[in-house]
Amino acid sequence: MPRYDFRCRSCGATFELRRTMAQANDPAVCPQGHEDTVKLLSTVAVTGAASGGAPRQAPSGGGGGGGGCCGGGCCG
Ligand SMILES: [Zn+2]
Hints:
Elements: E1 3-8, E2 14-18, E3 37-40
Antiparallel strand pairs: 1-2, 1-3
The chain binds zinc ion.
C-alpha cells in the first residue's frame, strides 16, 4: 500500500498515511484534527510532466557551391 505524505495548513504539521490509490485523493485529517491539509508529492512518483515544445530542428548546412575551375581540368 503506498504511503502518502500530507501537510496540515492549519498547524503546519506533516504526517503520512497509508491508503490505497483509490483513496489517494481523499481528504486527510491532521493528527491534530485539522482538515485543511494538502497532499505532498514525496514517495509516489508522478508521471505526466511532459514538457511541450517544438523539437529542435538542426539546420542542415551545406549547399553545394559548385563551380570552380578545378573540376574540368582547366587548372592543369
Ligand atoms: Zn493540523
